[in-house]
Amino acid sequence: MTTNTAHATAALSPATAAPGPAPATGLDERIRRNPGAHRVLTGDRPTGPLHLGHYFGTLQNRVRLQRLGVEMFVVIADYQVITDRDLADRLAEHTENLVLDYLATGLDPERATIFTHSSVPALNQLMLPFLSLVSVAELSRNPTVKDEIAHSSQSAVNGLMFTYPVHQAADILFCRADVVPVGQDQLPHLEVARTVARRFNDRYPRPDGSGLFPRPEPLLSAAPLLLGTDGGKMSKSRGNAVSLSADEDTTARLIKGARTDAERRIGYDPVARPEVSSLVLLAALCQDRSPETVAEEIGDRGSAALKRTVTEAVNEHLRPIRTRRAELAADRGHVRQVLRAGAERANAVAEATLAEVRSVMGSV
Ligand code: TRP
pTM (2 decimals)? Predict the structure, then answer.
């Protein structure tokens, strides 16, 4: 969701929104009615540890979808990392840590296929025909790419940065996913995937006239956007986020240093008091209570009391997850085995799709 992009900036959604029902596209309802009819593709860039924003924004929702019985693919987007940096730094470590975060928060590798871009050649090959279906003008209009280019530390825009939404279309379409849980910032990319699917189907219909690809739909996150401890967007790369893997003391220190305001009375008003409200919301999410109740309880005991409450709530909520994570981390062989099994399954699916693609395209 919006929080899972290390560098997609400029929150397109309000700074802090109260939790609420998913937008009424009806997709969530359709999934609940018939989970077996859908396939979900989602993913993250392996750039650092996942944090509370990811947890409340995406990870919980993935586990919810998994429990409903929807088939799920999770791509660890290692080829996407090199869009905006010269070095894909500590890739193996970040990849294994992502897997640990996934497993600790409840993804079941028996039910979800977890794999990396670089281990699935046929997925990557789909990018070539897909690139031919999108104009340069369309690529250059993509607002999320523009935003990333504006914030990139690279002196020149590389070709992969420019074209990665098409690669992302291959991520989604290789397994013919029809549901993509995303945040606002990913909507332009999903539109590219939908365009590619439609144009491919039009240009290369199957012998019976049907199209090879579904038109994937976004499943917009209903989750609130939490702010980082500096009051800005919570981000893997800004040191302003509590990661799932952090220990309790680090968590306490980060929250203690969080920006608040001078008003003693604690309230929940995301527009007027974004920093305080984000902390209140965080405690509320951890304790499964309403932010108003949390704020009311702290009353005029001020920021220090608020931070104590938040620290305790976060550490308590994450304790079983962290314990499980530590157990899993002790067995790196298991993590690698999860990735191997995921790659095997993803390769089988990608090769089958590529075979059909080559067939409708008349490749020999
Ligand atoms: N671009 C996404 C992000 O930065 C990660 C991602 C890669 C992804 N491929 C995807 C998300 C396919 C959804 C679907 O967070």
Answer: 0.90
